[in-house]
Here is the input.
Amino acid sequence: MSEKELKEYIKIKGKEEIKHLSDKEKLYQIPITYYNISELDITKEIEQKFVSMKEKEKIQEIGD
Here is the structure.
């Protein structure tokens, strides 16, 4: 079985399986994308707006 045939088979088989699932079970069939935060590029604009948790706690202590 070639890679193309395998992908096509998985598509068809996946659709067949989903048809037999209840609505509650379908919720678990949705693919979820995960990101590794350390690999994300942070723009300078976002970095300037970012306030670390430690600084935020210090600001709250001063404000109290």
Summary: The first helix runs from residue 3 to 19. The chain has one domain: 3-63. The two ends are 68 Å apart (CA to CA).
